[in-house]
Design a protein that fits this description.
The protein has 830 residues and is of the alpha/beta class. It has 4 domains: 221 residues, Growth Hormone, Chain: A; 233 residues, Up-down Bundle (Growth Hormone, Chain: A); 45 residues, no CATH class; 286 residues, 3-Layer(aba) Sandwich (Rossmann fold), CATH 3.40.50.150. The protein contains 29 helices and 16 strands.
Length: 830
């Protein structure tokens, strides 16, 4: 930092500011390195807010790709507007550091207001919001109301402080360093929030931490401002009139917009593929974000250094965009042809921290080349169109807004449209074409002395080289390996034991596959693992979940199934004659197509059943916005370590589901014991018992060992009537259910309920120190994310069974039924 300061002071002595310029007094130069540190703090606070807001708002508007796209567009749109508005609203006469400090104070106040207003806004949304175009527009309005005020202020910080330097290559270099410092802080903030603040504390504590950082930055900024004068521009008309770009600047602005577009679209594609490779936990997302931002920050610093010395920053920008074609091709090669085949087996690690280390290394391997070039492009674009007489705030605001507009389009297209439409292979080829176009815009035309663009031999040569490079590299992009989609982080270990991959699909929210083993077993894969299968132990759980859901309540006329998967649970529900209407809430539109095509024989062709309605939406959002009530709800979402899945395991969600149960209604939930830790399992069960204090646990074993569980809660707790259930099963119209139960080893009512493994009151001691998963902390996804490579299901189940007691009063029926059940549920006290 001292070397940078000395370098700047020496360069400042060699040039004199022109009259009417925006040059700062020499006394301010010694504080410029310290401003970079302030921007580190600003960036850290901004990323903490972003992660917290995205987590909290996804609970209200849903966590589907559409909802998250709306959220991201609003967030980035606010920052782009803020960068444009600052120079039009705030006079250049104001001390830039004081403006910057008050912006930081405003961000902190806004951050607190968002936290305070969320419950009220959430209640309003649940009353008005819904699906369809109207619901989508209301989601956007809600995000705008909450996020625009703080993001406008965030976007204005860089243009505000830019007025403390002149719009020369050396001054632009410092703007680039500020931008790089901001990104460096964002790296710190993403890791601090993901690995500590939200893992150990909650959204409130994380918000207070960000507010404290804003306050510290503001106080330091005000302190520096009080010791340094501000020289207002000699030509004040520049501060209020339109910014005057040099002739021929539009290709640079378009190119930096395309750069932002390719950056955010590529990030969305890389996140999809990297989460398959590394596991889609909150920690993986934090590592990917940190790696991407680190590359941007380093690239911005290098670009800033070059911007002060190179003679032709315009050409350097074009070269960056040209090399981005190779950077995207490198990422495509790494993600499809290299990293999946590295001999890495995460199960061999003795600690998840070692997995994090190698995961971060693999992330950098993929994203660093492209991120470096995107980061360098921003300061080079500033230098390419900067002139001393310009208002630096307007210059930065315009370039930043152009970059952000492209980023919004890229984020929306990358997260919602392009992967589902054409897949990751073709999507990456499109991005390479856009990067080549961006390079052509600034490399081919040259700026003549009169300011007009013209074609020359050198530019045409650069254009030919760019096109040749792009055409060659586009042809090298391979499709995503089906084995990676199927087995994710375990792909390298499954090279010789995976069966035939008979389907691979890339949907709006997730990538999925279907495999057929040599023994005829079908596997449905999502999130890089088997989510459902026709294996006996999986069929047993899936049908248990469905049949318990409809057999326990007295009148299961209307049932909600959360998560379609292979459709086996939904199919078990659908064949109950008493079920008149069934709704399946599924977040991924592609899943029902896969289910109907491949698993019809196992799920009774559930998606074609006329009484079944498939609702494509985040299940939580569906429950928040519907007035419909149900006689039974069953939930079989993604593994809780998958980012976002924990929203369907919170106390608030279980209470929301309970509110949507009719009198006598029940709720069942799947809980896995494999790929999980005892702390995560305890959190799931204890949280469920908070909403259903008398909840019941049923166990599904594999080879006599624990495998997974079914939790059952009743809206109105009462005994389970074995006689009534037996009376149904002897009816002729229940023959399909009797056959279904027999296929999984249950030949009587006693066999089914002999899977009883515990009840809320008896398990209270075992769950005494369990962490409750709440909306404000989503603790489960942090606990589960630390245990996704564990296979301790046998130990977890046996440890829980120590607290199992005979459930007095839980069952009722004839003496014969009660005697038979008691005999299979008797065991010595612990």
């Amino acid at each position: 930092m001292l070397l940078l300061e000395a370098s700047f002071l020496m360069s400042a002595r060699k040039t004199k500011p022109d009259a009417g310029g925006f040059a700062p007094p020499a006394a301010t130069h010694r504080f410029l390195p310290w401003l970079t540190l302030l921007f580190v703090g600003s960036g850290a606070a901004a990323l903490i807010y972003e992660i917290v807001w995205f987590q909290l708002l996804s609970l209200i508007i849903g966590s589907s790709a559409i909802s998250m796209g709306v959220l991201l567009a609003t967030f980035m749109g606010g920052m782009g507007l803020g960068s444009l508005m600052l120079s039009r609203v705030v006079s250049a006469d104001k001390h830039p550091l004081r403006v910057y400090a008050f912006l930081e104070i405003g961000i902190g106040i806004s951050g607190m207001l968002v936290l305070l207003l969320l419950p009220w806004v959430g209640g309003l949304y649940s009353a008005i919001g819904g699906s369809g175009i109207g619901g989508l527009l209301f989601r956007g309005l809600l995000c705008a109301i909450l996020l625009l005020p703080p993001t406008l202020l965030m976007g204005a910080t860089l243009p505000a402080i830019a007025r403390w330097v002149e719009a020369t290559p050396r001054g632009v270099s410092w703007m680039g360093f500020f931008y790089g410092g901001n990104i460096a802080g964002a790296v710190i903030g993403s890791l601090f929030a993901g690995f500590y603040l939200l893992r150990v504390h909650d959204s409130t504590v994380a918000t207070f931490a960000a507010v404290a950082i804003n306050a510290a930055v503001a106080l330091i900024g005000l302190g520096i401002a009080s010791t340094t004068p501000h020289q207002a521009p000699a030509a004040p008309g520049e501060a209020t009139g339109r910014i005057r770009f040099p002739a021929g600047s539009w290709p640079v602005l378009v190119a930096i917009g395309l750069s932002g577009m390719t950056a955010l679209a590529a990030e969305a594609i890389w996140v999809r593929l990297l989460t398959l490779l590394l596991g889609g936990t909150v920690y993986t997302f934090a590592l990917i974000l940190a790696g991407f931002l680190a590359g941007l920050g380093i690239g911005s610093s290098v670009g800033s250094y070059l911007a002060r010395s190179i003679a032709n920053p315009r050409q350097a920008l074009g070269l960056c965009q040209m090399l981005l074609v190779a950077g995207i091709a490198w990422a495509a090669y790494s993600l499809t042809r290299a990293l999946p085949y590295w001999p890495v087996n995460p199960w061999l690690s003795s600690s998840i921290t070692f997995n994090f280390q190698i995961d971060f290394a693999r992330t950098l391997w993929v994203v660093l080349p492209g991120a470096l070039l995107w980061g360098a492009s921003f300061p080079l674009a500033l230098a390419a169109i900067a002139r001393r007489e310009q208002d630096p705030g307007r210059l930065v605001g315009a370039v930043y807004a152009s970059n952000t507009l492209g980023a919004i389009i890229g984020a929306l297209a990358g997260s919602i449209l392009i992967i589902a439409w054409i897949g990751t292979q073709q999507a990456q080829r499109v991005l390479m074409g856009l990067a080549a176009l961006s390079a052509l815009l600034v490399l081919v035309p040259t700026v003549a002395e009169n300011g007009r663009l013209r074609l020359g031999g050198r530019g045409l040569a650069w254009g030919a080289a760019t096109l040749a490079l792009a055409l060659w590299l586009v042809s090298t992009v391979a499709p995503v390996p089906g084995l990676l989609v199927a087995y994710g982080r375990y792909m390298a270990a499954r090279q010789d034991n995976h069966g035939d991959i008979i389907y691979v699909g890339e949907g709006m929210n997730s990538s999925m596959a279907v495999s057929l083993l040599s023994n005829g077993v079908l596997n449905y894969h999502n999130a890089g693992k088997v989510q459902a299968s026709s294996e006996p132990q999986d069929m047993r759980l899936q049908r248990m979940l469905g049949h318990l859901t409809t057999l326990v309540p007295e009148n299961p006329g209307n049932v909600l199934v959360i998560g379609c998967g292979a459709g086996v649970t939904a199919g078990a529900v659908s064949i109950d004659p008493m079920v008149q209407r069934m709704t399946i809430a599924e977040i991924e539109p592609l899943v029902p197509e896969v289910v109907s095509e491949y698993f019809g024989a196992h799920n009774f062709n559930v998606v074609r059943n006329p009484k079944v309605n498939i609702h494509i939406d985040d299940a939580r959002h569906f429950l928040v916005t519907t007035d419909e009530t149900f006689d039974a709800i069953t939930s079989d979402p993604f593994d809780p370590w998958v980012k976002g899945a924990a929203t369907l395991y919170t106390r608030e969600f279980f209470e929301l589901a309970k509110e949507h149960l009719n009198p006598g209604g029940v709720m069942t939930v799947f809980v896995q014991l494999y790929e999980s830790s005892i702390d995560a399992v305890k959190s799931e069960i204890a949280t469920f018992m908070e909403a259903f204090p008398d909840g019941i646990v049923f166990g599904n074993t594999n080879n006599g060992q624990g495998y997974d569980l079914v939790l059952l809660g009743q809206r109105d707790p009462g005994p389970i009537d074995l006689e009534r259930i037996e009376g149904r099963l002897v009816r002729s119209d229940y023959e399909p259910i009797v056959q279904s139960l027999g296929e999984i080893g249950f030949y009587s009512v006693e066999d089914l309920f002999a899977t009883f493994a515990g009840r809320g009151p008896e398990l209270r001691e075992w769950l005494r120190e369990a962490q409750i998963n709440r909306d404000r902390n989503l603790r489960l996804q942090y606990l589960a994310g630390l245990g996704l490579n564990l296979y301790n299901e046998g130990y977890i189940y046996s440890d829980m069974l120590q607290y199992r007691q005979y459930p007095e009063g839980l069952f009722t029926g004839s003496a014969q039924h009660m005697s038979a059940l008691q005999s299979v549920l008797s065991w010595p006290p612990r």
